[in-house]
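Record 1 of the preview.
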Amino acid sequence: NNEISSDEFNKKLNEIFNRCDDEALSVIKDDMLKLKANSFGFEVDSGKTDMIEAKIGANLAWSGDATWAIEEAESSYEKELYFSIPKEGSNIWFDAFCVPSSSNKLDIALKFIDFMSKPENAIQNMYSVGYTSAVSSPEMLDYVYENYDVRGAIGETSEDEYVEYNLSYFFKDSISNADDAIIHADPSTIGRTLTAQYPEEKDLPHLCVMDDFGTQNEAVLDMWEKVRTNALPIWAVIVFVIEILIALGAVIYFAVKKIIKKKLKNERKKMKNA
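->
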């Protein structure tokens, strides 16, 4: 029997995902250079804007950025963007509040974290930035119903088409009836904002938590520097040169136009005074 449990699969996938020995870094560097030669570029925060402006057709994005881009593209550009998790696996992210060990205001810091973790504040934060809050509460489930369930609220009914979407893995410890976390999802949100904010349970074994690089930190930084500073692909150089020529042409055009306009103005002035 070659079957393994989800936990065993995830453990092995995490081990593979976090490999950063010299051999792994060499393979990663070569693959990233190939990717760089066939992509718009590497980005930190501009990818979501590039997506909604159709500068690029695909982007590796944090789920909150993806949620923002999907909503913005639809509301401002009437375009539909989609979100998917690679079947091979991906990293799972989380943001956290951290208090420095040297802090002399620990009580205030903890009160702030408690304040931000109140469901009503976590919901506002989630609404503003698109990122899923780690807070699991009845209030948060109500928010999910308002945004994704065709019924609009727990206990309501609707004749609209829907897809059952089970979020009990996330909410089961904060609600009395786990079945309430099986929402009747609007089909248009599947593969879009709902998937970005709340992946299905079947996807979880394919998600890995990134470790730090330990003693390989310098080697990883060196590998990235070689990828980052590698010469631009030919097509990118051509595009860059064309953009410069267009900009230069525009400057020359307006400069010449200004000179001609000034010359004509002076000639009209001379004719008027003659």
